[in-house]
Amino acid sequence: MKVKSKRSKTNLGLPIVVLLCLLFLLAGFFGFMILSQDVPRARVIPRLRTLEFVEEVNEDGSMPHGRTGVASVESIPFQILSWKPRALYFPNFATAEQCETIIKIAKANLKPSLLALRKGETAESTKGTRTSSGTFISSSEDKTGVLALIEEKISRATMIPRNHGESFNVLRYELGQKYDSHYDAFNPSEYGPQQSQRVASFLLYLSTVEEGGETMFPFENNSNKGTGYDYKKCIGLKVKPRQGDGLLFYSVFPNGTIDGTSLHGSCPVIKGEKWVATKWIRDQEQDDDF
Ligand SMILES: *[C@@H]1O[C@H](CO)[C@@H](O)[C@H](O)[C@H]1NC(C)=O
Ligand SMILES: *[C@@H]1O[C@H](CO)[C@@H](O)[C@H](O)[C@H]1NC(C)=O
Is the pLDDT of residue 131 over 90? Predict the structure, then answer.
């Protein structure tokens, strides 16, 4: 009996000891795992992160980028000229050589500039509103590739894809030539239903005008409104054309309504010659140019 009970005791005791040993082993193992993860994590991981950061950020401060992004940081200097309308100035947007190349291409194809007519208007009734000569050139027609470069840069500056732009409208204003104040956006109540709207305009000045030829915004900050403004007058915010500089302004508010302060015109050239390349940017893709 004694032996039997002793045997049964050892029979029961042995598995318990083995089980307890296993439990201790496991507890020790997991305890070590948790400790070895927890404690050093607080110290080591941030250091690893810092290392990753140092490795991934380049000298120019560029970041890892998405599939359609680029690998470097770029600087396109600009100055906010006005919030009403939203107008930005880009000094030295293009080089003098690029400007001269565009003028050369355009010169071969200049025609008197036309107007988009409102209901009831005729070419005769609007004579004298826009006296410049101009031509439309798409970047694909330009074998030098300069227009494509400019177009690409405009799309980067605006973050509006290239195919939202119309062809470049290159204009020449000679002595006394001007463009009376107007909107680039089309008000459907005046022009009828529109397939798409011009939301922004980018003007690249191709020449420096000695005197006159400014781009003017007579209603800047809602000034001169409701005072019977003479649309031929050259008042308000005036931007002097300087070769290579760019001017971007938005014709509509973020909600799509036409911004009344985006009214603008080109003052008469008093001395020199004004060359400008205009890119109208629309809210819809412009398939025909691509
Ligand atoms: C802009 O117009 C507003 C309202 O007419 C006026 O209060 C404000 O002083 C103007 N800002 C400047 C800088 O002239
Ligand atoms: C659109 O935005 C402008 C400027 O913020 C605002 O004055 C106008 O009332 C808005 N129009 C509509 C229809 O929401």
Answer: no
